């Protein structure tokens, strides 16, 4: 089954790679709409529960609509991966606050979220001529991991897999060299979405704290990055600076958590981890 699945995945990836970007994205939307509710019943239930907490003013019909949009969105993101190199070349990424990343050559910790097509948060920084690198968690499927690694390398960003024993050292070396280090601060780890809290009684000890600590320790700019999906498909990436001078690490973590919550509440259907939230 593994080899057959790999063959199907590779054929699909290659087919999507030669399609026009809107067509590839539309295929993903259709696949997500069909497979999400059918094969991810637990995720469907978790998304509904999360929406009750995140957007309590939305009624049952509204939550059902947002959940349908969520599955379509997730499907789009995965098929758009095959078009990653084209998103910039086709002018599909708009950037707000690009100057907040400072001039290339100055260290920046980019605290990113899994919103919109989250890969564009790093691509936009590359478009601004920054040297971008970041930690990523390899997928359980080796072929899919290799395809993702190749796509990221082709657009120009260096990946440091969490499974590598020297991953943290490579991150620090990259940052101290005056580069942009991307950390997705709402990561899913050990069966828990690490941030934001959304009222949960959990410690904020994942990438969200690491981003704050690295910015303080290495005198790097700390910038929050999120993405909004627009029709087209198009994407709007926004960078928001966070002042660190004289601010304690705990307070920076709280600020990042608040910014994550605000971003996600505005468009919960565009947040990848909505279907993984547990309350």
Quick synopsis:
The chain is an alpha/beta fold.
The helix/strand series, from N terminus to C terminus, equals: HHHHHEEHEHEHEEEHEEH
Rg to the nearest angstrom? 18 Å
Cα shape? globular
Structural class, by secondary structure, is: alpha/beta
Q: Would you identify the regions where 5 or more consecutive residues have pLDDT less than 50? A: none
> What characterizes the major β-sheet?
7 strands, mixed
Please state the average pLDDT score: 95
Strand content: 15-25%
Q: For this entry, what is the oligomeric state of its chains?
A: single chain
| Amino-to-carboxy terminus distance | 35 Å
Spatial sequence of strands, sheet with the most strands: 1-9-8-2-5-3-4
Estimated helix fraction: 40-55%
Strand segment count = 9
Query: What is the overall number of helices?
Result: 10
Describe this structure in words.
This protein is an alpha/beta fold and 279 residues long. The chain has ten helices and nine strands. The strands form two sheets. The protein has a seven-stranded mixed sheet, with helices on both faces. Strands 6-7 form a two-stranded antiparallel ribbon. Helix 9 crosses helix 10. The two termini are 35 Å apart. The relative contact order is 0.17.
Secondary-structure map:
Layout: H1 2-18, H2 21-39, H3 41-54, H4 60-80, H5 84-89, E1 93-96, E2 108-112, H6 119-127, E3 132-136, H7 142-155, E4 157-161, H8 167-176, E5 180-184, E6 188-189, E7 192-193, H9 207-217, E8 221-230, E9 234-242, H10 249-266
Helix pairs in contact: 2-4, 9-10
